[in-house]
Design goal:
Length: about 550
């Protein structure tokens, strides 16, 4: 009996010792109320590079220095198969999806702007007529009335992870900045301390949604005419191209800096100033700064993804990011910060460039589709104003007329969808009834469904063939918005704190970012979240 008791005691003691040793490896997030809870990051910086395709990381690798993109990849965790799980891939939906952890079907930002089938007006994703512009610009009264600052996030129907942090701890600070209003407003969320963007004069402004007066340090930046100071001399790459910045300033004013790589630079300078003046990450609470670099998008649209201008822009952006990372490390410490960097969408190569290489592509005229469809509907159902709007590849039908003529809505939707399939540039069509009543497992169909919002989307959604763009772009430039990999495949890197270095090639979704950050911070997920935390960086 004594031997049995002794053996039992040895086993129990050994098990207890083993359990104690194992418990030391449990992360702080599982030890609520423990001392390790203080290991949560003091600062989260979310970086979105507008229109950054995945392949840019490798195409420009040899031209990057060691302290920017290379530092993030070499020291952080690189998710190399990150995809947008919906269409359309535009700036507004992209930023909203990154920070809400869900898709347009839920958060409601279905495009940058969309036709409102109730009012017949267009709605801008960040527009808010109840607000006014806050700016210390030269013509203050005029600027107050300008549309530049009549903005807020009220069209976004769900919370962001920045909102959830503020709900968790009101003392935490959240700021969002971008050259574009939507790039600053949507990531910052509904509860931010501030959001700043550039107006048509090249000045930093905000909305009365956040404050009634600009902080002194923002006013000082504006007083120094920072944008105009950069628009001097030439933007050039020796032997490749030269763009005269002086003439650009004369033609377009201070906002012309947006279409140069120096737009990213002055945004980065603003980020550094906010970190300093607001003392982000230097208190006891976690703070968040969202930064959206937009010049990459303006330049990409104008010149295309293979232009020397886009390469030069990324080389310069690499230096800006290096400066930002250095400042974060010096002010907060690498171990106390988490940075993630991704994109809001990619971009397609210019169709004429693809055609030159025997790759299927082309341009189409959407007005022809609308006109010919109306003729078809008049022939089939009688004369009438059948079409209310066609935009963003969404067809909006006249429901009042359909009801008046006692026609089945589902029938006329199917008829229109079938009619569009005759065009060579149309790949698939979907009716609102189909998207509402069915759940698609096919990858391309499901992308359309997750971008469909029953209250805001059209009656018929058109999906284009690869490489096809509106004839608007036939004179030069390119755009995005499709369900194809050139628009949906973007980089995603986490860096800082206890983020393990590595690379992951499994497919992850852009909506996984928000629950990942929420898990690290120990806050609730955004209230419409449909993503999953990335365990490679949370465990």
């Amino acid at each position: 009996m004594k031997r049995i008791l002794l053996l039992t005691l040895i086993i129990f003691t050994g098990f207890q010792s083993f359990a104690q040793k194992k418990s030391k490896g449990i992360s702080f997030s599982l030890q609520v109320g423990s001392e390790n809870e203080t290991e949560k990051p003091k600062l989260v910086v979310g970086i979105v590079v507008d229109q950054m395709r995945y392949d840019y990381m490798y195409r420009f690798w040899d031209d990057f220095e060691n302290d920017g993109f290379k530092k993030l990849i070499n020291e952080g965790h690189f998710f190399r198969n990150t995809q947008f799980g919906y269409v359309p891939t535009y700036t507004g939906p992209g930023h909203a999806s990154i920070y809400t952890g869900t898709t347009p079907a839920v958060h409601g930002i279905i495009a940058n702007d969309w036709y409102d089938k109730n009012s017949g007006d267009y709605i801008y994703c960040a527009g808010d007529g109840d607000m006014h512009t806050v700016c210390n610009c030269e013509q203050k009264n005029v600027d107050v009335q300008s549309a530049d600052g009549k903005m807020s996030p009220h069209h976004m129907l769900t919370t962001t992870f920045t909102d959830e942090l503020k709900l968790f701890n009101e003392e935490s600070k959240v700021f969002g900045i971008s050259l574009k209003d939507r790039g600053a407003i949507l990531p910052a969320g509904h509860t931010a301390n501030g959001a700043y963007w550039m107006n048509s004069d090249g000045k930093w402004i905000t909305s009365s949604f956040y404050m009634q007066d600009l902080p002194d340090y923002i006013q000082k930046i504006n007083d120094n005419n920072t944008a105009q100071n950069y628009l001097k001399g030439n933007w050039e790459v020796e032997g490749e191209f030269t763009h005269n910045l002086d003439s650009l300033l004369i033609q377009k004013g201070g906002s012309a800096i947006k279409k140069t790589p120096f737009g990213n630079t002055i945004l980065n300078d603003l980020a550094l100033e906010i970190l300093k003046k607001e003392k982000l990450g230097q208190g006891k609470n976690t703070d968040i700064l969202t930064v959206s670099f937009s010049s990459t998008d303006y330049i990409g649209h104008q010149y295309g993804p293979h232009a020397s201008e886009i390469k030069d822009t990324y080389i310069r952006l690499d230096k800006d990011i290096a400066k930002l990372l250095k400042t974060i490390n010096s002010k907060v410490g690498f171990e106390n910060a988490i940075v993630f960097i991704t994109a809001d969408h990619g971009v397609v190569s210019e169709p004429h460039e693809l055609l030159e290489r025997n790759i299927p592509a082309g341009y189409f005229d959407g007005s022809i589709m609308k006109t010919e469809l109306l003729t078809h509907l008049n022939t089939k159902y009688g004369e009438g104003d059948w079409i209310k709007n066609y935009s963003n590849n969404h067809l909006f039908l006249n429901h009042d007329l359909i009801e008046e003529k006692n026609i089945s809505l589902e029938e006329i939707q199917r008829n229109c969808a079938q009619f569009f399939l005759k065009y060579e540039w149309v790949k698939n069509t979907y009716t609102a009834t189909q998207l509402h009543e069915n759940e698609y497992s096919n990858s391309f169909h499901s992308l359309v469904q997750r971008g469909f919002n029953q209250k805001r989307s059209g009656d018929v959604i058109v999906s284009l063939q690869t490489g096809w763009l509106s004839s608007y772009w036939s004179s030069g430039g390119t755009t995005h918005g499709s369900s194809y990999s050139y628009d949906t495949h973007v980089p995603l890197i986490f860096w800082g704190g206890n983020i393990p270095q590595g690379k992951t090639d499994r497919k992850v979704n852009i909506r996984d970012i928000a629950p990942t950050i929420s898990t690290i911070l120990g806050t609730a997920y955004p209230n419409g979240c449909t993503g999953n935390p990335l365990t490679e960086v949370t465990e």
